[in-house]
Design brief:
4 copies of one chain form a homotetramer.
Chain A lengths: L4 H12 L3 H7 L18 H11 L5 H7 L2 H4 L12 E19 L3 E9 L5 H14 L3 E12 L2 E3 L3 H13 L1 H9 L6 E10 L2 E9 L6 H18 L6 E3 L12 H6 L2 E10 L1 H6 L5 H17 L4 E2 L3 H11 L7 H4 L2 E8 L2 E11 L11 H10 L7 H25 L2 H9 L3
Parallel strand pairs in A: 1-3, 9-10
Antiparallel strand pairs in A: 1-2, 3-6, 3-8, 4-6, 4-7, 5-6, 8-11, 10-11
Helix pairs in contact in A: 6-16, 8-9, 12-16, 13-16
Chain lengths: 421, 421, 421, 421
Amino acid sequence: MTIPSHIIDMLHKVRARFQIEPIQERMLPSDAEFTTLRPVRKASVSSVEKYWNRLQETASPMDQNALADPLTMADPDVFSANIENFIGTVKMPVGVIGPLRINGLNAHGDFHVPMATTEAALVASYARGAYASTKSGGISTALLYEGVIRTPAFVFDDLLNAGMFVEWVVNEIEPLKAAAESTTQHGKLVSVEPVVDNNIVFLICRYTTGDAAGQNMVTIATNALCENIAARCPITMKAWYIEGNFSGDKKASFLGLVTGRGRKVSASVTLTAEVVEKTLGTSVQAMLDYGQVANLGSHLSGQLGAQAHFANGLAALYIATGQDAACVAESAIGITRMEPRGDDLFCSVTMPNILVGSVGGGTSLPSQSAGLNILGLKGAGKGSALAEVAAATCLCGEISIVAAIAAGHFTRAHENLARHR
Amino acid sequence: MTIPSHIIDMLHKVRARFQIEPIQERMLPSDAEFTTLRPVRKASVSSVEKYWNRLQETASPMDQNALADPLTMADPDVFSANIENFIGTVKMPVGVIGPLRINGLNAHGDFHVPMATTEAALVASYARGAYASTKSGGISTALLYEGVIRTPAFVFDDLLNAGMFVEWVVNEIEPLKAAAESTTQHGKLVSVEPVVDNNIVFLICRYTTGDAAGQNMVTIATNALCENIAARCPITMKAWYIEGNFSGDKKASFLGLVTGRGRKVSASVTLTAEVVEKTLGTSVQAMLDYGQVANLGSHLSGQLGAQAHFANGLAALYIATGQDAACVAESAIGITRMEPRGDDLFCSVTMPNILVGSVGGGTSLPSQSAGLNILGLKGAGKGSALAEVAAATCLCGEISIVAAIAAGHFTRAHENLARHR
Amino acid sequence: MTIPSHIIDMLHKVRARFQIEPIQERMLPSDAEFTTLRPVRKASVSSVEKYWNRLQETASPMDQNALADPLTMADPDVFSANIENFIGTVKMPVGVIGPLRINGLNAHGDFHVPMATTEAALVASYARGAYASTKSGGISTALLYEGVIRTPAFVFDDLLNAGMFVEWVVNEIEPLKAAAESTTQHGKLVSVEPVVDNNIVFLICRYTTGDAAGQNMVTIATNALCENIAARCPITMKAWYIEGNFSGDKKASFLGLVTGRGRKVSASVTLTAEVVEKTLGTSVQAMLDYGQVANLGSHLSGQLGAQAHFANGLAALYIATGQDAACVAESAIGITRMEPRGDDLFCSVTMPNILVGSVGGGTSLPSQSAGLNILGLKGAGKGSALAEVAAATCLCGEISIVAAIAAGHFTRAHENLARHR
Amino acid sequence: MTIPSHIIDMLHKVRARFQIEPIQERMLPSDAEFTTLRPVRKASVSSVEKYWNRLQETASPMDQNALADPLTMADPDVFSANIENFIGTVKMPVGVIGPLRINGLNAHGDFHVPMATTEAALVASYARGAYASTKSGGISTALLYEGVIRTPAFVFDDLLNAGMFVEWVVNEIEPLKAAAESTTQHGKLVSVEPVVDNNIVFLICRYTTGDAAGQNMVTIATNALCENIAARCPITMKAWYIEGNFSGDKKASFLGLVTGRGRKVSASVTLTAEVVEKTLGTSVQAMLDYGQVANLGSHLSGQLGAQAHFANGLAALYIATGQDAACVAESAIGITRMEPRGDDLFCSVTMPNILVGSVGGGTSLPSQSAGLNILGLKGAGKGSALAEVAAATCLCGEISIVAAIAAGHFTRAHENLARHR
């Protein structure tokens, strides 16, 4: 049995779907007629209706009503700056945890954190972690660093021209910085580092972005920088690209782990032994013991850092507060640590890639805005505090899941809460 | 200037937030009183109201109405199997792309794909990719493999006991498999592989999960397997854990890239030169040239595979169809390739970690169910087709963004569509 | 100072090497005449002499004598099966550590381990670890797994053909296995796993290789397998390659970490508190504390696993015993763990990629053969024991360096031992 | 067959080695007596003889003579600064390739490169690449960057103290730099970057190291920096460590790939179509086609960058020239690229982690010194040129192996050259 049996089983399953002849046709391109509806940038009742006329082949009026409900249809244009081809809204349930006490550099006070998810047990688990943390005096947080990067790429004939280009950029950095910053009120270009691979040069352009998450801001600023280079640089260039797929935008990368992208926050709490026992139903030693195994698992499976489920907390918070849910892919990396402190348990998370804003993106949409308001973190001057809330929330989730797995409760929680479906 | 200036700047920013004395207090634990509302598992009008009474310190009645709107409050219990501490629903706008022609092993036909996002330009970009693909005859797709893994860990005194444990498991695999499968109608344990690190053994338990994404299913099945081991295995065990943080659940990992987790799908299309020029506004050669640079960027920044923005398409589709948005963290890895085929452009994505289900999770909620119905992929027998749709959608996004960056349009699209906010 | 100053400094340094005009010429291709000496496969006194005639432009007679010394020149042909264009031998100093007590599945007894290096302090450090381990009763070792992989790649027109190819291979696996194994007396093809990326298929062919390291053996066997496929498979193939750069041969990879390549060995010892204090000059707690920090460092810098300096021990042992020193690149990954056991310190290494043989490669050369004889591990039936010795040796190095850093002695050791040069 | 059969086979193999009772004893610690010979730092004829008296249990007089040959024993003390417990020298055969024409920023001319290896076919393969490169006008090289890092770690009670520590370091950077540089004539501390993980701070200390590889130099300098901090810093520290296992010393890491460690060099050549056909026996298109597959393999197996076998060239050159062979583990990462240039083939390597010196380490030993002299690169002022030679040599190896695999010759070469053994 040289081929693993599950691979053979899978092959049979695939095979069962077709006889050679038909499937060949099935997978071939087809030039059957089709018509695409005209793209819609500004949503209106009638534009939505047009789409649903098209969708009625598969979807029912009930489906239409679930997305294009009367409240949504009262003013579809409210969503026009955030989406195209609008057909309604999906309703993601929101639960709340808290009060979560945060003793932070930027966030300070007792917060209720809205979390949007359809995964049963998630909110309950984070709520438990929040209770344990608050009971232990709250979570200390600090924004350690910020900087969103864009990494345009420039292609030359050879290494010599690439080198001369780097020299030119270094000498011209002030006007280039001015060009970039001319496009934005809040963005500042704080660092440019060239990375050369023979005839190709990437520029790691790092910006602070005020209270916005800032991905668009840095794209536009970097584009201006690139166009300024293209207009003035005397070195012959074969091509330039606004992004060399180097920045880690929307994807986990070791660059992000090593140098950070977005806001880097650390959060910690020392749970008392009593809280671990009474609230979490386990012991400090049991959590530490599991922590060793979990750390080993993270190494052996090739993760970026070591943590349990940052993605759960981040996705729930990002969605509830109008952040970009796709950024979970890059944000869900970092480090969770647990260590003894006398009889108590020190727990920390350090997250180098939190992408959040208290302005911009989806933050102005009504229900997302409400999410930020629940936190008291909508608008100017709140971006850093929001990042600290994100990290503190993730720490609650780490504490709760580690306790649950250490105590053997993990499965039971999911069984009880999810099996009703 | 041995310390990089942006680090010094950041330090000054942090420093400006406090004078040493006050901040020390600010970051210390506090034992001020607090009260947590009773956890709510079954949502009702009154349970929601109770939460909002608490939230009114920060949130306004308008905020309450945005989340706990009349339609949501008509029957809050509909969400009880998916969330705890329910306070309302966040409304994420949904746009639609299509028809997207898919010539797949499992998905076959012209699909309209609902995408939930607040990122302007995203839907327009994917729609463009869908148009180009369909114009070129559609996207071929195939589910190549499936298997959701859970990786319990077992701790022993020493290597010798760990080795004897592995032997016991191998000999007892049939009853263990039976124990695992007794908990589930659809889940099948298809492979168990031990990984030994001295006195610790991880078992990579791989399941097929029918039409569900299956994370809960495999947790419950694996728990039964572990309890069966714990009850019968004669080797002295120091501890066992349902998950050794090895499976890559909710996080990007090289294990997932190498062996797959969830459903592995490959999707491809050969775009005609004419479509590249007329629809995408660039040339085959320009896209290939950029592809080389983007590939280099992915290597140099330490990504898992090489792709542009799977996360955008996945997050939008997952949210619109009731999938677990946190799984974007693990799903957004894989490979995008572009190669010349005569004058035309072959484009493919291969995604080893798609976590979707046509049943279970959030798929039964009204608006999420509508999302699946738009695709015609709700319910039993549709899970594999849904995974193929996910990959085909991501391929559309890859095509569009690569074309945009190659043509220099990327920034303009974001500028035009997002700057209205 | 947007550009980091060390980058500017570096640029000035580079800049100082040229004025634009001259350097352009300096880096251009040149078509000046040159003559290459005829390649030599079978070394002789006269072939060596011819090379040195050529080398005398730069090298002196003393240099010639250092490499082509009289003992080497007594029979240059002894090296002919291991090198081409032979000009002499480099003399790497060898030190010995031990007795190192190994209580292993395959290696059993008190070993003296030869280590070849030019790095001062290395042998002394490993010797200290060996003494501490032996004093604590010796190191337990077990070969857990073995399998050298080759991963040929096959390219097809499209995914459909790739799928049909996989099916063909699965059905034909027995004759393919026979073809592969017909080339070798000791190699066995134990597993074949296909990995599909759209139209490209990699076959992970895993072999046991008897007592040889086996890289050539698996190359030749896999070539036979591929040629058998090429001769008989009816699916149209665009190309096939003996290696798709997937196997991790001669390079660190997560595939190797996850699935192993070569021999996987775990080794452990529990050091008594007394040994830690008296022999290592530190305390169990100090070593554990440093272990936590070192583990964090390994995560944050993106290493493959977590260990201190496997490469030192491996390179020294590989060179001294005729193994392939280039394999250090792939072998130097894995896990070192330290944990308290009562008052004592449990230490383990698990190394998934040890590439060693007690036959083949450089093992028959006189001084390399002597290295194996010192271990008592030359020839048939000793490959597994040799792998266990490698892991045990690395464990000694881990213990010693962790103790040195924990105690603050690390620098002093290097200062004292290396500064004489 | 839920457990893969090769795992079951392996288990049986392991099982066959013991009956439960005996093996338990076999793997237990033993307190049998043992005596370790006194460590020897200064080698002499009599110290070597003492060791061999001990080794005669396993090794024969012939073995002794192979290592402790008359030439080596003429003056064993010559090795005392490079090794402890000296018992002789291992003789690694050296082959030479060239002339290799290098048109470099630092290396310039036609070089003969000595390579020490016991892997048949390696020298022949690199020689072929050198011939093809020189025939095409030679390889352009440039040292792009240099900087060896050490990363001490500092542990505090909490995040607040960690933050205050970072501030203190930033303010005191000048005296700290002076303390570090006071220990070395050639080392310069060019950058310090703090990385904070809650209460733990790593300082990435980056040095230029003149013409030495510099690992000891930066250790000693960083130790002085740390001791200066420890003596003067008013923030309470729980511990500090000279190395937080963060620098990537002796191991592959993404930090090294992203930021470089040691010397970063890029090397390139454009091979004419004629050379590809006549010298390499394949075509430009065939090499490009294989390059695409090889790149995919590197992604899917989780390598650091994408290259074929840098480790072979590096190990052979490092050993032949007295470099630290263990550094192959960190140096063997980076990027190989091949692209069409009209009808010709552009090939480049960019290697961010070359660790070489023209002084220090093993460079003064007689036969290693001869290796450097063959290159004309011994002594002060040659370190950068040596790094360029290393990259150029690796490029030759990449060209040759890619051509061989593309042409289907790879296996044959190994078969012919290695099978004589």
